[in-house]
Amino acid sequence: MNQIIFHIDVNSAYLSWTALQRLSEGAATDLRLIPSIIGGDMEKRHGVVLAKSVPAKAYGIVTGEPVVNAFRKCPNLIMDSPDHEMYERRSHTLMEFLRNICPDIEQTSVDECYMDYTPIAGFYDSPEAAAHSIKDEVHARFGFTVNVGISDRKVLAKMASDFKKPNLVHTLYSHEIADKLWPLPVSSLFMCGRSSVESLRKLGILTIGDLAAADSNIIHSHLKSHGVLLQKFARGLDDSPVISEPVKHKGVGNSITLAKDVTDRAQACRVLLSLAESVGSRLRTSHETAALICTEIKYSNFRSVSHQTVLPAPTASNDTIYQTAVALFDELWGLGPIRLLGIRASKLQPEDEPMQLSLFDLDMTQSSEKQQKLDAALDAIRSRYGSDAVMRGSLLRSPSEK
Known about the structure:
The chain is an alpha+beta fold. The chain is built from 14 helices and 12 strands.
């Protein structure tokens, strides 16, 4: 499949996270529901607005303006100071959750990141379904909202996430830019600041479409290399990949919010098999093995349960992870409708860590080596030809499930 990229952006992160923190400490009012801002000094009322609530936006308050101006627009405005340590903690929790869905994450700030959809495409009916699932799960788990932009280009995914907010999913594929992007003012273009907007205005360039169609030589002569970059973005040209940095995990996991509630064990086992193969592949990619497996179930009423067990020997085997996850599932499942399934592997160690075997374990060594070779061969094929190049027959959905 062609590259599909998500841009995930927390809606008014500083204000949302401060509101949640205040509520957890017993505050009676949710800052998100009243005219409020984050920024500056509450007593001296200086500094700039770092984040604003939707009711504050209705007064014309904008991010980056002086706090004193914001109070002129809304005298009853409530302001709180930023807590960057708390923001970092909440950011870390969010990014860990997203990496458990897909490890290919490029975090670009405390409240936004890119995600490569390709490795998880087999779990969802469409990119839009995946984005809605992620967005809804973030809200259900953490209490704040995100926008998700979807595109075949990073810069377009970024701009899509900046469309109407909050808590929405937008697409901006290359073939959609003429309809969705070009009519917008150039001020909406990523990295087009006020000075660039003013320079372009003097050239008669008012919309992103105007910039896309302009003479490149003229743009370069007035805005130099930055103008060339802006024009590339206006034309939807961006071949940069999602660059995920290696992260030392305490564990490796994957979970999926199901498109429809699952009430059948066989169907649940198919989902667990797909998750086990994803977790096993990630372990092998990082050259690690896991000694503990955990299975998580979230029911349709949002009640979550989980159970874990220590393995006789650390593993990165798909089959061992799957069989263990199913055993845990059978112990957990109360026959209620399932909304989410997850598998997590922890107690990680390097794959070449010496391991003492008992006499009984020696009989299993040969079959284990065969399984490792099979898993490695499948990893190589999928790495080269895509995650759907090789699939187990049990993972193919019947027509009634599509």
